[in-house]
Design a protein that fits this description.
Strand content: over 45%
Number of helices: 2
Strand order of the largest sheet: 1-2-3-6-5-4
Helix content: 10-25%
Distance between the termini: 46 Å
Structural class: mainly beta
Radius of gyration: 14 Å
Order of helices and strands: HEEEEEEH
Length: 110
């Protein structure tokens, strides 16, 4: 069997997610769909093509999770991100995750 080049480069298998999310960065808070995830990263889909900053926090609303990530690639309205860190948004959070927690609460997270 032949595998595509992009599949060969993947270090971790992808899992389809189709989860509601929010992209958070200084001066930016925009809704997204978390299209798929892996241990190494995730792909998000925005309503429009938007160049995201080099580092962002992706809030997974249903999971109550903030994922700090680095932009790896962009194609149209989709962006691939490398995971750097993550934290639960349930309960008390350190100040560095405060903007993500506020975005999660505004989006209906509990």
């Amino acid at each position: 069997m032949f595998r595509s080049q992009s599949a060969d480069r993947r270090q971790f298998p992808r899992t389809a997610a189709n989860a509601r999310g929010v992209v958070v960065a200084p001066g930016l808070e925009v809704a997204c769909v978390i299209a798929d995830t892996s241990d190494g990263g995730l792909k998000v889909r925005l309503d429009r093509a938007l160049v995201l900053p080099a580092r962002v926090i992706i809030v997974d609303i249903a999971a109550g999770l903030a994922i700090e990530a680095e932009t790896a690639w962009r194609q149209g309205n989709e962006t691939g991100l490398k995971r750097r860190d993550q934290a639960s948004l349930k309960g008390l959070v350190p100040s560095r995750w405060l903007a993500a927690r506020e975005a999660w609460t505004r989006a209906g997270g509990r």
